[in-house]
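The records we work with from here on pair a chain with its fold. These numbers are not coordinates but entries in a learned vocabulary of local backbone shapes. To see the layout at work, look at the sequence and tokens printed below.
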Amino acid sequence: MFEQQWNLFLERQQRDAAGARLERLQRDLTGEKKLVATLFWPVLKSLDELTLEYSISSQTGVTIYGDVYFRRLNAIVETEGFVSHAEQVTRDRFTFERMRVRSFVMQGYLYLPFSWDELDKKPDACRRVLYELLGRSSLGRAPGEVDLSAGERELVYWMRLHGKELSLAEACMRLGRTAKPTRHVLRKLLGKQLISPVNQGTLRIHKYALTEKGKKMSL
């Protein structure tokens, strides 16, 4: 069952991706697959809330990627083996990795790293972490809080960070997706009244701006 769902999931992720993110999704994803199979699938029995190779802009403007984004917890979840990470990492790579983790944390993401050995030898302990965090999140959600997908959250955050209106082309670049799935994300934000068309009343929407609700909501 998991193999079938994983193949469908990966196909959807690749279909909605573009540019560097698509290239990453076409590489060897053994680590990401093990993470999803060991941690998420036994707990959720669904992959709908996950995004592979999730991208954000760092504080210096560099695009960085996380292995798996889990929407419900707004979490970046990653795994790496000891040999590939601890034994063979260069000083420059080590410094870059520290910057990358700081960027996730500074932009409000929960960062959850797991080692390959943990997933392999202590899978139940890894899943207990996920169960506990899910329990906390269900108790801590504020009344009326807006639930955002990974893409929705990314676009709202970008517009707030830069104080700019957003075009479809810019939205596609931020999400690493083609126009069709990007328009779907924008329509969701319009429905939640977090953005509004800049040229409302014309036949084609060229740019979007944050509404007051979008500017004030908690990310």
Q: What stands out?
A: The domain at 150-216 is CATH 1.10.10.10 (Arc Repressor Mutant, subunit A).
